[in-house]
């Protein structure tokens, strides 16, 4: 009996108490605000319906699962409008209310799927249009405007405000596309492990509507691969592979000084720090090539760059590092797993990542060279036969020993 009951209860992802309270609070605010505004618009003596029951189901989606494809703005507005129009049409053309209700929901589902605005509560909207009684029938096609469109738009407005204020991006934003190189090659993370084409093939075979966006599913699979790598690598961190003797530069330094440092130390990037060693940005060889003009004296700002900086800052540039540095800059922590760096550096096209401590001060830098060396060492360690002499002797693979000051 216990096994049978367990199969009836769906599996659910673990949720924090904060998220549960956020969803419940959102539904409270959404329905209350929608009802009060509609009542104020119609007045207390109106015979028109103020709030229809399907809005309760819409509130569950908009506030409890705002990332769902079924909860996006076009889903609620388009789905409810389509269902209302279909429901009213079925009620007018089909005398039998039960046949009309069945046809209304069936046709509404087909149209919502075709128009990509599938919204489960819209089925209840179609049913209400047919079985809502005399007040609903008297509205005719006006039912699609009031109360359906009015309720939907008001609830959607509250969801837009509440979700974004409480840390849930709404409408749900697609994961940012990795930086490309202007070629036909996919991003590095899309060439290893489970690829987008693999996922598309499985979804085609699955042939069912899933309450998750394909792009979100792809991101979840990628993060699962990263977690798997962390588990296999024993949580190697930035602190184990980063260079600590970092060559940095100040924001007011002239451009030729940045060029001299890059040449003298045979490096490709310079963290830009203030007097307290806090990272303000990073200047790279690419910045010097793309954002300056070159002559016999070296790099200098061109007229277009000067004009752009003047308009954006309200003051003339000084031809210094601050005028060409990349900011803000992505940074890591000493305890950041290198598995995270693989994703950041490969897809974003980053070659160097500053490492900052708890006080946001620069403590090191990780380059692609450091990362490749660690990955090779880890692969060699995992494929080394048990009882290998080097392992037994206590010799550590490259990158596992405590980091020593090295040039960047």
Keywords for this entry:
single chain, 408 residues, two-stranded antiparallel sheet, 7% strand
Describe this structure in words.
The chain is built from 17 helices and 6 strands. By secondary structure, it is mainly alpha-helical. The chain has 3 domains: 150 residues, no CATH class; 46 residues, no CATH class; 154 residues, CBS-domain (Roll), CATH 3.10.580. The strands form 3 sheets. Strands 1-2 form a two-stranded antiparallel ribbon. α2 crosses α3, α4 runs antiparallel to α8 and α10 packs across α15. The radius of gyration is 30 Å and the shape is elongated.
**Could you say what the CATH topology of the largest domain is called?**
CBS-domain
CATH evolutionary superfamily of the largest domain: CBS-domain
DSSP E strands, number:
6
Strand order of the largest sheet: 1-2
Q: What's the CATH class of the largest domain, please?
A: Alpha Beta
Q: How much is the average pLDDT? A: 81
Count of DSSP-assigned helices: 17
Structural class: mainly alpha
Describe the largest sheet: 2 strands, antiparallel
Number of domains: 3
Entry summary:
This protein is mainly alpha-helical and 408 residues long.
